[in-house]
Amino acid sequence: SSNLCSIEQTWCRISQTVSSNLCSIEQTWCRISQTVSSNLCSIEQTWCRISQTVSSNLCSIEQTWCRISQTVSSNLCSIEQTWCRISQTVSSNLCSIEQTWCRISQTVSSNLCSIEQTWCRISQTVSSNLCSIE
Known about the structure:
134 residues
């Protein structure tokens, strides 16, 4: 009977030790699992913030280039319109100058013809008078 009690007490202590060790192992794995889970969540949140920052920066860069492109395009159109107006003004002025010189030329030509006709009549009169005198 004494031996049976001793064996039973030994098995009881072994059982308690095993049970205690199993609980300790289980708690250790529980803490490891919680730490891993927490770290994974932290990493995921970090990558999420990085992704949002990168996405936001890319959108900002795209919008900046869009505004630059619109400004350049607008400036090119403005420069083209300015040169168009300058060209039209120069063309108009050249036509005006050409028309002025045309009128001056016509006036000079008309005056030369008038002078020539006058001298022709004077010459004819002088010739007629000389013939008459002769």
